[in-house]
Amino acid sequence: MGDKIRKKTVALFLINILFWLGIFLYFSFFRFRGEGDYLILKILLSGEPVLFTAALSGYLRSWRIVPFLTLLFLAANVVLSLTDQVGLLDAVSLVLSGGLFVLLILQGKGKNTP
Questions:
Q1: Which of 16, 40, 58, 90 is deepest in the core (most CB within 10 A)?
Q2: Rounded to an integer, what distance in angstroms lies between the CA atom of residue 73 and that of residue 35?
Q3: Contact call for residues 21 and 49 (beta carbons, < 8 A)
Q4: Extended strands (E) in 1-114
Q5: Sign of the Cα pseudo-torsion (77, 78, 82, 88, in order)
Q6: Which residues, in sequence order, are CB contacts of 41 under 8 Å at separation 6+?
Q7: 15-to-7, 37, 84, 109, 111 alpha-carbon distances in Å
Q8: First to last CA, the chain
Q9: Whole-model pTM?
């Protein structure tokens, strides 16, 4: 069972990375192209796939601090998804982050780390 959860966790990390990379590219190059007022939004959106990639890298290397930091990051994503008007992107982010959060908790309880 531990190997199945681990594979699902890696898959959800990759889906999160692709989701946030797609959102960043859309908002940076199509929706707010050439609009300097949205620079902060673009910078914050660029950080999501970078942080997910770093978390996945640490997860695959079994670094001890990664699960704690990743859970904090995912909890923040879940809370931020709920603090505004919940649209389609917020709902997708909530499901992806919440699912990954649950999988990491299950792994921590079962000590399924390699």
A1: 16
A2: 28
A3: yes
A4: none
A5: positive
A6: 27, 32
A7: 12, 29, 23, 23, 24
A8: 13
A9: 0.80
Phi-psi region of 34 (alpha: psi -120 to 50; beta: other; left: phi over 0): left
Give the integer Cα–Cα distance in Å for 111 and 73.
21
Give the Cα separation of 89 and 31 in Å (integer): 14
Residue boundaries of the structural domains of the chain: 2-110
Cβ atoms of residues 103 and 6 within 8 Å: no
- State the residue for tokens 């190997």: 3
- Let me know: does 41 contact 28? Beta carbons within 8 Å: no
Tokens 């390699």 -> residue? 114
Give the tens place of pLDDT for each residue, 31-75.
767 666 777 777 787 888 999 899 999 888 887 787 788 899 899
